[in-house]
Amino acid sequence: MEAVPRMPMIWLDLKEAGEFAFNPAVKKSAVNVPRDFEGCSTLRKYFGQLHYLQSRIPMGAEQEAAVPIAWTEIFSGKTVTHEDIKYEQACVLYNLGALHSMLGAMDKRVSEECAAGAFTYLRDHFPHSYSVDMSHQILNLNVNLMLGQAQECLLEKSMLDNRKSFLVARISAQVVDYYKEACRALENSETASLLGKIQKDWKKLVQMKIYYFAAVAHLHMGKQAEEQQKFGERVIYFQSALDKLNEAIKLAKGQPETVQEALRFTMDVIGGKYNSAKKDNDFIYHEAVPALDTLQSVKGAPLVKALPVNPTDPAVTGPDIFAKLVPMAAHEASSLYSEEKAKLLRDVMAKIEAKNEVLDQFMDSMQLDPETVDNLDMYSHIPPILMEKCAALSVRPDTIKNLVQSMQVLSGVFTDVEASLKEIRDLLEEDEAQERKLQELLGKVPGSQGSPPPPSPGLAEVSKECSKYMEVHEKASFTNTQLHKAMNLHISNLRLLSGPLDQVRAALPSPSLTEDDKQVLQNLKRILAKVQEMRDQRTSLEQQLREMIQKDDITTSLVTTDRSEMKKLFEEQLKKYDQIKVYLEQNLAAQENVLKALTDANVKYAAVRKVLAEVEHKWNTTVQTLVASYEAYDDLMKKSQEGKDFYTDLEGKAAKLLEKARAACQAAEASRQQILEK
Q: For residue 551, what are the contacts with CB-CB under 8 A and spacing of at least 6?
C-alpha cells in the first residue's frame, strides 16, 4: 500500500509493589521507575541483583531468611503476599515486560520483542501460582500478543521499505498466526475468567486484527500474482482480501476513529485493486478465476523472536554486589543441573513442536472446523438479518402497493409519450406521401412548368424535433425496461418477506441428508473430538513437565555432594521425568493413527461436504438476494419517480409538438390544394 495505516497496540499495566523488608531507597528506585527505556534498564539491574542475592541467602519459600513480599495483582487489584524472594523477581520481571509493552505501543513501535522475552523467561523459569496475572495461561497470551505486535511492526516497516509482495504476504500471515494463538487463549474459559472485563475488549481487537492482516496478506499475494501476470489468481486473491476486510470492518464496531480510518483507507486500496483486476480480467485477459482453496496457502514467516533475558549478564545488571557473601560452588552446580533440565525440556519440546507442526499443517489442509463441520443448525431458523427485514416490512404494509402503483403510473406516462410520438411520425409520413403524389401528378400534367415548392419550414422543424425526442425516448426506454425488470424481481421477493414467516423459511434452501450421510458426519465429528483430546492431553503433559522442572530444586543435595559424584546425582535426579516422558511419547505416537482415521473419514465426508457447501452457498445467496430486495426498495421508488418526472416533461413537449405537427400538416395540405387548383 502507498501508505501504511496503523492499528492500536495492546499494552499491560505495571504491578504496584507493597511490603518488602528491603532497603527503602533501593525498593523505591526499583518499583517506581520512569515509563521510558531508563526505567527498563533499572528493572533489569534490580532483577539481576535479586538473582545474585537469592543464590546466596536462603530467602526462598519456607527458608530461614524469607520475608513477606507484597504486590498488587493486576486484574483484581488485590494485594498478594508470598514469603519468597522469587516472587519479588517474578513481579519485577512482569513489570519489565509490561513497561516494554507500553513503550512498544507508542509511536516508535519498538520494544515488543523485549516484552515477549521478559514474559517468556517469566513463564519458563518461575512458578505460575504466585498470582493470577502470572499464570501460565496469561503469560502464554502475553507472549503471543507481544510477538504478534512485534511482527506487526516488522510488517509496517516492510511495507514502507517496499519489500517484495510475497515476503510482505508471509510476514502478514505470521501476524495472523500469532494473533490466532492469542485469540485461542482469550477464548479459553479459564483465561477469560482470569482476565475479567478486559477479555472482551482484547478479544474483539485481536479478532478484528486477524481478519485485517489476513486481508493484507491476500492483498500482497494478489500483487504478486499481478507481477507474475497470473490475472485469474489476482482476482481471487483480491476478492478474498476484500471479504476478509469486510469481516474486519464488522468486528471493528466500537473501535476508535483511528481504526475506522485505517479500515477505510485499506478498503479504498483493496476495493480499487479488486475492481480494476476484475474489470481487466473480464474485458482483456479472460483468465479462469481459480477457487481460493486450490491455491497454495500463505505460510507465515516468523521474523521476530522473544529476546532472551540473562539475569547474570554484567553488561545489564552491573557488578554482582553480593559476590563476597558466599562461595559460588553450590550455585555453579545448581546452574549445571538447571542446564540439564533445560536440555531435557528442549529435547521434549522439539519433538512436541515437530508433531504439532505436522498436525497444524494437516488440519489446515483439511480445513475442518469441529464447530462448523456440519452447519445444519443454521437451516432450522430464519437468520436475524432476514427477521429484521420481515419485521420492518410488517410495519410498512403499503410497501408493495406503493411500488406497484409507481410502476403503473410510470407505464402510463411512458405509453402516452410513445403514442404522441407515433402520431407525430404518422402525420409526417402521411404528409410525405401526399407530397409525393402531388409531385407525380405535376409531372404528368401537360404544360406544367417549374418544380413543386420546397417543403414547409414548419414541417422540417417538426421532423427534426420529432427525431430528437424519438432518440431520447429510445435511450430512456432501455433504462425503463431494466427498471421494470428490477421491480418485478424485487416485488416477488418483497411479497415473500411480507408474508408468513413459515413461507420465508420454506423459501430458504436446506440440505437433505440420508441416514448414511448423517452417520458419516457423526463419525467425522467423533474423530475430530479425538484430535482435540490428543491436543489437550499433550498441552497438559507439557505443562506438567514444565511445572516439575520449575519446582525441581536440588540445591540442598548439591551442598553435601562431592564434585566427583555430581554427574551420577544428576542422572538419578533426572529419572523422575521418565514417566511423564513415556506418556508424552505415547501421545505423540498416537498422532499417526488418529490422522489416518481422520483422512479416511474425510474421504467419506467429501460428498456430504460438497452437498452442504452447495446448499450453504444457495442459502447465503437467497438470503443476500432477499435482503438486497428490501434494501433496493427506496432506490427503486426514487428511480421510478425520476422516470415519471422525465416522461411527464417529455409528454408535455411531445403534446406541444403534436399540435405543431397537425397545424403544419394542415398548412401543407392547403398549399397542395392551391397548387392543384392552379
A: 127
Residue 116 CB coordination number (10 Å): 28
CA separation for the pair 254, 96 (Å, rounded): 31
In the numeric block, the cell 521507575 is attached to 33
74-100 as b/e: b if 16+ CB within 10 A: bbeeeebebebbbbbbbbbbbbbbbbb
Torsions phi, psi of 19, nearest 5? Answer: -70, 135
DSSP letter for 282, please: I
DSSP 8-state code for residue 499: S
Q: Which residues contact 540 (CB under 8 A, 6 or more apart)?
A: none
188-208 core/surface letters (b: 16 or more CB in 10 A; e: else)? beebbebbeeebeebbbbbbb
Across-strand partners of 81?
70
27 within 8 A of 20, measured Cβ to Cβ: yes
Q: What is the mean pLDDT of the chain?
A: 84
Express each pLDDT in 219-238 by its tens digit: 999 999 999 999 999 999 99
Amino acid at 344: L
Q: Helix/strand/coil (H, E, C) string of 237-280?
A: HHHHHHHHHHHHHHHCCCCCHHHHHHHHHHHHHHHHHHHHHHHH
Q: What residue type is assigned to position 61 of the chain? A: A
Phi and psi torsions of 72, nearest 5°:
-85, 130
Q: Kindly report the backbone phi and psi dihedral angles of residue 554, in degrees, each rounded to the nearest multiple of 5, phi listed first.
A: -110, 25
More confident residue, 454 or 125: 125
Question: Please, is 69 exposed, middle or buried when counting C-beta atoms within 10 Å of its C-beta (0-12, 13-18, 19+)?
Answer: buried
Contact in structure between 177 and 227 (CB atoms under 8 Å): no
Give dist(CA 89, CA 48) in Å, integer: 9
Task: Give the residue among 14, 88, 15 at the shortest CA–CA distance from 51.
Answer: 88
Secondary structure of 197-249 as H, E, C letters = CHHHHHHHHHHHHHHHHHHHHHHHHHHHHHHCCCHHHHHHHHHHHHHHHHHHH
pLDDT in tens, 238-282: 999 999 999 999 999 999 999 999 999 999 999 999 999 999 999
Query: Coil, helix or strand for 127?
Result: coil
- Grid cell 521510558 is found at 36
Query: Three cell numbers at 150?
Result: 512485534
Single-letter amino acid code for the residue at 43: L
DSSP state of 560: T
**Cα distance between residue 605 and residue 520, in whole Å:** 6
Q: Determine the Cα–Cα distance for residues 245 and 212; give it in Å rounded to an integer.
A: 5
Q: Could you identify the residue written with the cell 505416537?
A: 589
Of 59-63, 85-89, 120-124, least confident by mean pLDDT is: 59-63
Q: What is the pTM of this model?
A: 0.53
Distance set, CA 176 to CA 155, 217, 375, 580 (Å): 11, 9, 25, 33
C-alpha grid cell, residue 196:
475479567
Query: Rounded CA gap, 213 and 4, in Å?
Result: 12
Q: At 17, phi and psi to the nearest 5?
A: -85, 145
Between CA 101 and CA 106, with CA 102 as vertex, the angle to 5 degrees is: 110
- Rounded CA-CA distance 336/213 in Å is 44
Please give the C-alpha separations between residue 359 and each of 183, 371, 535, 604, in angstroms, as whole numbers.
19, 18, 9, 20
Over 70: is that where the pLDDT of 27 sits?
no
C-alpha cell at 373: 463441520
How far is the CA of 110 from the CAs of 18, 24, 78, 86, 362, in angstroms? 30, 32, 31, 29, 35
Q: Answer for the pair 149, 113: CB distance below 8 angstroms, yes or no.
A: no
Helix (H) or strand (E) holding 404: helix 399-444
